[in-house]
Amino acid sequence: MIEETEYRQELEGKLSEIDDILKLEKKAEIENNRDYIEKSIKRELVLAEYGEQARYEYVILATDKEIRRAAEIVLGEDYFSYLELR
User: Fold this and answer.
1) DSSP output for 18-38
2) Domain boundaries in the chain?
3) pLDDT of residue 59
4) Backbone angles phi, psi at 43, to 5 degrees
5) CA 36 → CA 10, 31, 43, 48, 55, distances in Å?
6) What b/e string do you get for 38-67 counting C-beta neighbours within 10 Å, with b at 16 or more?
7) Model confidence, pTM
8) What is the pLDDT at residue 85?
9) Is 47 helix (H, G, I), strand (E, B) or coil?
């Protein structure tokens, strides 16, 4: 009986350590991806409130550097000054 109790205590201690490690890793992962998470939330909120076109104009085009540069080439830089005035 004593061995079983000691085994359970040791097992619970190890499981607690693993749980603590996983919590720290999860917290670090969220922090490392904070920018992406914030943009994703903003994108979905704008979509829900204002629709698909607003999502592209105000979130995706405004925050994605590669898409913005491609749009500048295709649509001209004046397009973005229009967006900034709205």
Assistant:
1) HHHHHHHHHHHHHHHTHHHHH
2) 1-32, 34-86
3) 73
4) -60, -45
5) 40, 10, 10, 18, 15
6) eeeeebeebeeeeeeeebbbbbebeeeeee
7) 0.54
8) 44
9) helix
**What does the block give as tokens for 43?**
């994108």
Environment class of 13 (CB within 10 Å of its CB; exposed 0-12, middle 13-18, buried 19+): exposed
pLDDT < 70: residue spans in the chain = 1, 79-86
- pLDDT value for 33: 96
CB atoms within 10 A of CB 72: 14
Residue 67 has which token pair?
A: 């898409």
Write down the residue that tokens 């995706």 correspond to. Answer: 60
